Amino acid sequence: MIRTALTSTLLALTLATAAQARPAADTETLLSEARAELHGLQGQLGMVTQPRVRLRMTHQILRVEGLLNQVDRTLEGRPVVTVEKAVADVEAQRYDNDKLEVIADLSESGRFTSREISEIVSSCAFDSTKVEALIALHRSAIDPNRYAVALDTLEFTSSRDRTAKALGMDEW
Question: Which tens digit of pLDDT belongs to each residue from 93-115?
Answer without folding.
Answer: 999 999 999 999 888 877 788 88
